[in-house]
Each structure stands twice: as C-alpha cells, then as structure tokens.
Amino acid sequence: KMIYFVTPTYPRPEQVPELTRLAHTLMHVPRLHWIIADDQPACSDIVSDILRRSGLPYTHISSPKPYIYKESNIPRGVANRRASLTWLRDNVHEGVLYFGDDDNTVDLQLFDEIRQTKKVSMFPVGLIGTYGVSTPVVKDGKVVAFFDSWPGSRTFPVDMAGFAVNIEFLKPSASMPYIAGHEEDRFLVSLGLKLDEIEPLAANCSKVLVWHTKTAKYKKPSLKINLEKIDDLPKYGDF
Ligand code: UGA
Ligand code: MN
C-alpha cells in the first residue's frame, strides 16, 4: 500500500531547512507519495526544487489560505490540507493518508506501522502541550480515552500527527474546519469515526514515534550592513 504524506507549508526563513530535513527522512521510505500543499498563490520554485531533488513521487499543489486569515495567521494549514483531500478524492482510491507537518520529526518505524491502517490508526505524539505527550489511552488493546493537555470539548483530542487514515475510509463528507484547535477533531468526526474502530499503534500507544518539534524563529541580526562600506565591517577579533 502507498502512503500519501500530506504536508502543508508556507514561506518563511525556516521553510527550506524544515523541508530539507523532512525530505531526507521521507527518502528512506518505500512506496510513499509526498503531497506538498503550498500556502501561496502559486507553487514556489524553492519547494519544487526540494521535491524534485528528493526523487520521491510527489504532487505539488498551490492553495493559499483565504484572505481573511492572512493577518491572524490562524488556523494554520487548513486550505492546503483541504486541497490535498480534494486531490486525493479525485485521483487516489487506495492507500493510507497521513498529515505530516513540515516541522515534525518522524521515526521511520512509524511508516511501517501506519501502512497497516484499516480505517483510522492512532499513536502518541511527543513534545506537545503542557503534558509533553498527546496520546490515546489503551486498555485491553482498545482505545478507551485520550491523554491531551487541551481536551477543548473535543470528541477526539489528538494532534494532526497522531493519526493515519485508510483512503477507502475517506468519505465524501470528509472536511476540515477553519477553527484553530479543532481541525483534527472535526476532521475525524466528519469521517463518522467511532471510538471502538480506532486501531492503536506504537505498541498499544506506549512508544513515541513522532514529535511535534518546533524550530526557533529566526531573528534578523540587529547589525546593519552597508555594502558600500564593506571595509568598515567588524572583523574577526573585534567582538
Ligand atoms: C499544530 C498541529 O501540529 C497542526 O497540524 C495544526 O494545523 C495546528 O496546530 C493548528 O491547529 O493550527 P503547530 O506546530 O502549532 O501545529 O503549527 P505550525 O507547525 O506552525 O503549522 C502547522 C502546519 O501548517 C505546518 O506544516 C505549517 O507549515 C503549515 N502552515 C502554517 C501553513 O501552511 N500556513 C501558515 O500560515 C502556517
Ligand atoms: Mn508545527
């Protein structure tokens, strides 16, 4: 079975390093199709170049967020994930969908596990929220509850990186709302998912195989550089 790895992304100084690192992980995974959905009016050449050089089968979609969300910058990655869902619906009839953000860290073991997803599988996500981990709670091999530092009156309080979906289980009704914090839950609810259908992975959710890592925002140096006065630049040893 193919894995369809859906990555929303947007331009910023950290984008190329994040996508480079992610590409180098995905290059180790057989039968993986990378869908990158660009939060831009057109597919960026910088992103295309990373995709091409990865040698992976890929689809590059441009899907900017609606204008009203430009200022607030939240919810993140919704228009682009929606566009990916539409592309999948039109082009793919079997396989496994996984939403892999550009800044997460994934253990290769996770790919072997999610490939077996029959309907919806779930597993822990590390380095997230105030509890440090978000995970389903498993009893006798079944998911019975969720451990997440922000329940937020959600039916399935999980992170976007904490589940995979068999594409045959993607209903035409599958949707993701523009509501920050509720994207995952509403998406899973829109699939008609029931608690007892969830397949716990990662040794009954006892192992962390994906992390919600965050890269520190690059700050522009305060040093002003006047290229016409290049000789006046501080030299090594001046500091
Ligand atoms: C967390 C979850 O991991 C996301 O899957 C979820 O979309 C997000 O919360 C949310 O609910 O808003 P977080 O690490 O807080 O994510 O957010 P980012 O990593 O900044 O963004 C998530 C994804 O959306 C990334 O792949 C990012 O590149 C993309 N994004 C972000 C855009 O496409 N456009 C933006 O303007 C911002
Ligand atoms: Mn993130």
Query: Which H/E pattern describes the elements?
Result: EHEHEHEEHEEEEEHEHE
Total E-strand runs: 12
What compounds are bound to the protein?
A: uridine-5'-diphosphate-glucuronic acid, manganese (II) ion
Report the average pLDDT across residues: 94
Strands side by side in the biggest sheet: 3-2-1-4-10-6-11
Your description of this structure?
The chain has 239 residues and is an alpha/beta fold. Helix content is 23%, strand content 22%. It has a domain of 162 residues: Spore Coat Polysaccharide Biosynthesis Protein SpsA, Chain A (Alpha-Beta Complex), CATH 3.90.550.10. The chain has six helices and twelve strands. The protein has a seven-stranded mixed sheet, sandwiched between helices. A three-stranded antiparallel sheet has the order 7-8-9, with no helix packed on it. Helix 1 runs parallel beside helix 2. The chain starts with a strand and ends in a 28-residue tail after the last strand. The mean pLDDT is 94. Manganese (II) ion (MN) binds next to loops.
How do the helices and strands line up, and which of them pair or pack?
Blueprint: E1 3-9, H1 15-26, E2 32-38, H2 45-54, E3 58-62, H3 78-91, E4 96-99, E5 105-106, H4 108-114, E6 120-122, E7 125-126, E8 133-139, E9 142-147, E10 163-166, H5 183-190, E11 198-200, H6 202-205, E12 210-211
Helix pairs in contact: 1-2
The structure holds uridine-5'-diphosphate-glucuronic acid (UGA) and manganese (II) ion.
